[in-house]
Amino acid sequence: xxxxxxxxxxxxxxxxxxxxxxxxxxxxxxxxxxxxxxxxxxxxxxxxxxxxxxxxxxxxxxxxxxxxxxxxxxxxxxxxxxxxxxxxxxxxxxxxxxxxxxxxxxxxxxxxxxxxxxxxxxxxxxxx
Length: 128
Hints:
One of its GO terms (molecular function) is DNA binding. This is YbaB/EbfC DNA-binding family protein. The chain is an alpha+beta fold. It has helices spanning 9-39, 68-71, 75-105, 110-124; strands spanning 41-45, 51-56, 61-66. β1 and β2 form a beta hairpin. The termini are far apart.
């Protein structure tokens, strides 16, 4: 009988099959995570809830909704409300991203954790 790395050929084949299955599981989780990110849209509001901003996974503003009450104030008040809502949307997207990352990867994959942390940190800075 021939040993392969201290294992029988059958044991070695079983080990390889288990590693392949694990790699396929991780790839499927990554694909699902990427698909979730690509379609993600999250909103945020100013403190008076007169302005609503929607952002995508990159932090790009995709929609702004302004109530009539917000238009009654000064231009600088409106600008401040938009930036406040944008900041809130960034924080909400960051939270969503972290939740999805934890759900998909359980926080155990350090490369994925670093990736999520990096994106989340940038999203947390929106509107500042």
